[in-house]
Amino acid sequence: MSHTFIPSVLLVEDDDDILRMLAYIAEEEGFATECAASAAEAARFLDTRHFDGAIIDKNLPDGDGVRVAAYAIQAQPGIVVNVLTAYPTQRSILEAAEVGVVSYLIKPVDVIDLRATLAEIRKQHDTPATLEPAAAPEYHTPTYSTPPGTTRSSVP
């Protein structure tokens, strides 16, 4: 019986266009997605569903994305959290790292960086139990030919 691993990602962004783009790329990469436009909505998802990863905007209308990231990490140990912002500062990057954020994505989001981030989420959650088992190698019993007119016992 084979099981297909479908990773899930929570996308938290208050800009509708950016949120749609994030969801489109994530789904194209094989992720199940949930989208939230606020810190409160993100918290509700985190309280009721399991996620393998999250991409969270730093500046949300009702809260700080780094605090949402900290909540995600506390609520779901093992989740791979990334922060998204148009205004990175050294201080905000350090704050995010201190709570366990894996990386910072800069707006406008580079699709290659987004795909790499999603690949990292998938890689962190691929385990032998979720991957297709490898086919067993074929084993062939060696055959020996005996020269005509001899028996196996007479061959040195």
SSE order and pairing:
Elements: E1 8-12, H1 16-28, E2 32-36, H2 39-48, E3 53-57, E4 59-60, E5 63-64, H3 65-75, E6 80-85, H4 90-99, E7 103-106, H5 111-125
Helix pairs in contact: 2-3, 3-4
Note down, in words, how this protein is organized.
This protein has 156 residues and is α/β, with parallel strands linked by helices. It has one domain (8-125): Rossmann fold (3-Layer(aba) Sandwich), CATH 3.40.50.2300. 38% of the residues lie in helices and 19% in strands. It has helices at 16-28, 39-48, 65-75, 90-99, 111-125; strands at 8-12, 32-36, 53-57, 59-60, 63-64, 80-85, 103-106. Strands 2-1-3-6-7 form a 5-stranded parallel sheet, with helices on both faces. The protein has a two-stranded antiparallel sheet with strand order 4-5. Helix 1 (16-28) links the parallel strand 1 and strand 2. Helix 2 (39-48) packs parallel to helix 3 (65-75) and helix 3 (65-75) runs parallel beside helix 4. The longest helix is centred in the C-terminal third of the chain and has 15 residues, at 111-125. The protein is globular, with a radius of gyration of 25 Å. It starts with 7 loop residues before the first strand and ends in a 31-residue tail after the last helix. Mean pLDDT is 86; it is low at 128-146 and 152-156.
